[in-house]
Amino acid sequence: MEGKSPDLESIGSGTTTKRSSVSSRSRTRRDFLARFTDCDHFTEKLQDWFALTLENSGGNGPVFEVPFELVELQKFDYALEGISFQQLTRMPNAVYASTSTAVEAKAYLAIEDFLHATVKSLWEAFWSQDEPVPFSVGCLYNQNLKFYQAERALAIGKLEGLSGTGILLKNPRHLHGKWDHILELALLRPDIGSFAQDSDRPPSLPVLGEALFYALRILIARSVSRLDFSPSSNCVFILLVDSQYGGVVKVEGDVNKLDFDLNNVYECAADWIKKHSKIAVSPVDRIWNKLGNANWGDIGALQVVFATYHSIMQYFGPPRHSIEDLAADHSSRLHSRRQERQLGDTSLNDNGTFRFQQSTMSPEIVEVQEESTKIEPEPSMKLEVGSVLWLEDSNFQKGYQINEILTNGTLPYHIASPVDDAGKSVFLYVGSPPSQLEPAWEDMNLWYQVQRQTKILSIMKQRGLSSKYLPQLHGSGRILHPGQCQKPSSGGRCDHPWCGTPILVTTPVGETVADLVNEGRFGPEEAIRCCHDCLSALSSSSSVGIRHGDIRPENVVYVTSGVRHPYFVLIGWGHAVLEDRDRPAMNLHFSSTYALQEGKLCAASDAESLIYMLYFCSGDFPELDSVEGALQWRETSWSKRLIQQKLGDVSTILKAFSDYVDSLCGTPYPLDYDIWLRRLKRNLSEDHGKEIETSG
C-alpha cells in the first residue's frame, strides 16, 4: 500500500500548525482574561487619558459621543407602542429607605426584574412569541466573577460583593454563567443621578473606568468563544443605574489589536482603550419614578431598552419584525386610540396638529366648563409676511424681512430679504425655541432642518466645497427677540420664550421640484438638467465624505431669478451622513433599498433616491404604507424594468443611468460621477459651456 503523497502530507502539516497557532492564541487570551481581574488597578492606568479627554473637550459640548441619535429613539418609541413591559418588583426610593443595606438588596431585585421584563418583552415582540425566552438574568459576584440569582445571592450573604446585574444566554451546563454568554451588564452605583443635572458632563473616572473594565472583559471572552457572533459583536453596552436614574455606555473596538502581554496586563488593556476603542456615553436620565415604577416611555428607560435590543441582535441577528415595520403602524394606532376614546374629529389642521371637537360621552363630562381645562401656552412665535427677524451671530447682527411663508410638506420655512439688501432673496429657517424643555418628537425634524443642517453646511464651507448646485450658508445664529434681553452671559438665555431660538439662512432661492411637477412645468429637459445638477452636487459632497440621505422633490429647488441659465440646487442637508453612526431620513417612496433594509447608505444610495424622484415626478406615484410594501415595490419594479421603461419615455440617457444605478444598488462600488455628468451634459438641448459644472 502506497503512502500519502507529499502534497497531502504538507497540507496536513499546515493544518496542524494552524490549529496549534489558534489554540495557542486562545490559551494566551484566556490567561490574559484570568489575570485581568482588578478594576481599580485598571482604572488607575486611565487617569492621564481621562484628564486629557476632559481637557480636549474644552467644556464645550459633550465629552463623548452619544450611542443613539434622538431620531433612532423616536422610531424605536413608535415601534414599542402596544408592547407591554411589566416590572413587578418596585425600585426602592433611597430617600424613604430605613437602611442603606435594605435599599441595596431591594434595588438588585428590582434591577433583575427590570432587565427580565425588558428582554422578555423585546424577544416576544421582535423575535418570537412561540419560542421560549433564551435569556437569564443574574447578579455578578465580584470576588469570583460568577453570576447568581439575586434572591440566592442575598440569601447566602453575598450582597456586599455584588457589582452588577447581567443578561446572559441560558445554559443549563453553566449555572453561574460564562463571560462570553453576557449580552449586557448593568452596574448599580448610588451616585449616577448626580450626572443627570448636566447632560454634557461624563460619569466620573471610577464609574466610567469600571464600565470600561467589564466591557473589555466581555469583548476578550467573546474573541475566544465558540459561539457564532454577528459582525456587530465587537461592541458592548454597559448600563449605569441607581434607584432612579440610568444611562448607557457603549464600548466598541477590535480586540485583535490588543497586545496580550501576560506580564503587563493592565498597561496593555489601558493602551487598547486609549488607542483602539470608541466610547459613547448617553445622557443620564430618569428611569424609575418615586413610587418605584419604571417610566417605560421616557427617554431614560427608552435608551436602556434600545441598548438591550442591540445586544440581543448581536447573538440572534435581525429580528423577524423590524423596528420600521412596527413603527409604520404608529399613525393607525394613534387614530384608533383617538376613536376608542371618542375624542371626536381627529382630522389635521393646516399646521399638522390634530383638530379636536367636544364629545358628549356622559353628563359628568358635559358639566366641565371648557374654559376650566384650558392651559395657557407660552407666547408663540408668529411670523407673518412683513415681519422682521434679527439674527445674532458672534460677529454681527443682521435683519431679515419675511416675504413669503412656505412649507416642505411637513415644516414651514420662509423666503426673506436682508434688511440692508432688499433686492436679494434668501431661504430662512427657524428652529424650536429652547424654552420647550421637553419638545415633542416632531420638533426633532426642526432640529434636523436648522441645527444639523447648519452643522453640515458649515463643514462644507470649512472643507472648501464650492459648487453652485449646493446651498450656500448666508448666516446662522440665534434670534434677537423684542424687548431687553436679560440673559446672564453670552452663552445663556433669558426667560423670554424666543430667546436662543436658532436661525439658518441660505442661498440661492428657487421653486421646489414638487411645485414644478404640480404645475406641469417639469418636462424632459428639466428632468435631465435636474439629474445632472443633483449628480454634480452629490459628486462634490461625496468628495469630502458627505452623503445627502434625504433626496425628494421638496429638497431640490429650481433657480431662475438673476441667472442667465436656470439650474437646480440640492437643499435639505439636515439628514446628511458624515460617519457610520449617522442615519439617513426614512421615506417609503424615495429612500434607497439599502437605507430601508439597513438604516444606512451604500455608495449608490443617493443616486438611487435621485432615480426614484425622477420616476415619481414622471407621474406614477404608488401608495406605500409599510417598509415591507416599499421594498416589495422596489424589487418588482427593478426586476420587471418598470423604472427603466418609465424613464426611457422621458429620455434615453435617464434610462441608461437608471440601468447603471440598478447595477450598483446595495454594493460597495462607488459611482463614476464624471462619466455620467459628461453624458448628461451632452444630452441637454443647450450647451452652456462653463455654465455647467461637473464637480465641485
Automatic annotation (TrEMBL):
Kindly give the InterPro entries that the UniProt entry links to this protein. Answer: Kinase-like_dom_sf (IPR011009)
Q: Give the span(s) annotated as Disordered.
A: 1-23
Protein name in UniProt: Protein kinase domain-containing protein
Species of origin: Capsella rubella
